[in-house]
């Protein structure tokens, strides 16, 4: 399965591939005018609780929540950074004003958001994997297993930890590449890891182990986990992103596209009576054009936030000054150039594995393509 995500990072995944979510279904829906109009009509009617032909800020909230979930964000209220993105999504519909949204406005914004998501999935598809214990058995059987297990044990040996803690530390260090689903996922812990641990310790004391004891018991624990996975396979969504500045470079070299994006960004920011705006809105504008530069939204990835913050410092974004259109566009290009140079010097690779659970049962099913919900796991 190496290379399925368009990345050659020499990480082999032998887990069974169930599907590759690459945005094609979303794009096809939006581009089919008749189908998309029917889709919008149904969703609008579903959200318009008072049937007045417009959507209030409150009625839009389920749609905003669904979009956030589709972007892989935690629930609203979980994090100030993710809440910032939720606010921006809502502002896309309302333009930052407490006014109701017509069906036409809803259709236009939804189309833009869905096409943006489709483009992102085309660039960085989600690979859906089925983990059923086979890869875990291959890991245990391969020649390098004992050396990896010894390395794990050496990290906890000095703590005089009991066998159970040593084994849990060992499990935590296993990844999808070893055939292990994310050990930080609550469902995996309660349905796979804890039952396996309880079975292992049903007839033995939890003493401080020797290296030999750890190796033997670690093998036994993984054998039990493999059995659990055979009985209860785990579906995992795997994503990879390599932010190397190439997308920003491509955008900066395309004057027509860049100028169009800058014009759109300037048009949407609030302005005073002198047709000037505050520098602080540069953050919102960067988020607006992020997808076109192969960048994530601000607040989505900590490492990328650090890069963006350095670029913001370069233009003194928080000095409170009001600037005109020419200066605004100039500073936005300087921010992009700074981000590009930082990433060219030190690319950021992000890989995540998330357990796919049952579909969410919510009042709104705005984004049911694909019909899965994923709880992010680092």
UniProtKB/TrEMBL annotation:
<protein>
    <submittedName>
        <fullName>Calcium-binding EF-hand family protein</fullName>
    </submittedName>
</protein>
<feature type="domain" description="EF-hand">
    <location>
        <begin position="35"/>
        <end position="70"/>
    </location>
</feature>
<keyword id="KW-0106">Calcium</keyword>
<dbReference type="GO" id="GO:0005509">
    <property type="term" value="F:calcium ion binding"/>
</dbReference>
<feature type="domain" description="EF-hand">
    <location>
        <begin position="303"/>
        <end position="338"/>
    </location>
</feature>
<dbReference type="InterPro" id="IPR011992">
    <property type="entry name" value="EF-hand-dom_pair"/>
</dbReference>
<dbReference type="Pfam" id="PF13499">
    <property type="entry name" value="EF-hand_7"/>
</dbReference>
<dbReference type="InterPro" id="IPR002048">
    <property type="entry name" value="EF_hand_dom"/>
</dbReference>
<dbReference type="InterPro" id="IPR018247">
    <property type="entry name" value="EF_Hand_1_Ca_BS"/>
</dbReference>
């Amino acid at each position: 399965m190496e290379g399925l995500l368009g990345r050659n990072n020499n990480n082999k995944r032998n887990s069974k591939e169930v599907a590759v979510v690459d945005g094609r279904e979303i794009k096809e829906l939006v581009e089919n005018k008749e189908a998309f109009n029917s889709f919008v009509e149904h969703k609008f009617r579903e959200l318009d609780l008072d049937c007045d032909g417009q959507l209030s800020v409150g009625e839009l909230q389920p749609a905003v929540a669904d979009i956030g979930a589709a972007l892989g964000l935690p629930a609203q209220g979980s994090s100030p950074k993710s809440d910032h993105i939720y606010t921006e999504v809502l502002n896309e519909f309302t333009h930052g004003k407490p006014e109701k949204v017509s069906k036409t406005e809803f259709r236009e914004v939804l189309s833009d958001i869905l096409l943006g998501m489709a483009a992102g999935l085309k660039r960085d598809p989600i690979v859906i994997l089925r983990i059923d214990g086979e890869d875990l058995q291959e890991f245990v059987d391969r020649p390098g297993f004992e050396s990896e297990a010894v390395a794990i044990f050496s990290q906890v040996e000095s703590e005089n930890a009991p066998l159970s803690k040593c084994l849990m530390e060992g499990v935590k260090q296993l990844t999808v590449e070893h055939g292990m689903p994310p050990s930080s996922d609550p469902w995996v812990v309660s349905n796979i890891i804890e039952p396996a641990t309880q079975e292992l310790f049903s007839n033995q004391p939890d003493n401080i182990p020797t290296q030999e004891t750890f190796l033997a018991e670690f093998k036994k624990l993984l054998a039990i986990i493999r059995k659990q996975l055979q009985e209860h396979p785990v579906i995992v969504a795997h994503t990879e992103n390599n932010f190397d500045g190439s997308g920003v470079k491509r955008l900066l070299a395309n004057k027509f596209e860049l100028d169009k994006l800058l014009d759109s960004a300037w048009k949407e920011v609030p302005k005073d009576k002198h047709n000037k705006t505050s520098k602080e809105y540069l953050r919102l504008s960067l988020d607006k054009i992020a997808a076109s530069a192969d960048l994530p939204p601000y607040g989505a990835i900590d490492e990328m936030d650090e890069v963006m913050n350095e670029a913001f410092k370069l233009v003194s974004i928080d000095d409170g000054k009001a600037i005109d259109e020419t200066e605004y566009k100039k500073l936005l290009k300087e921010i992009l150039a700074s981000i590009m140079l930082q990433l060219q010097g030190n690319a950021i690779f992000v890989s995540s594995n998330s357990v796919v659970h049952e579909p969410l049962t919510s009042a709104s099913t705005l984004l049911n393509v694909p019909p899965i919900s994923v709880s992010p796991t680092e």
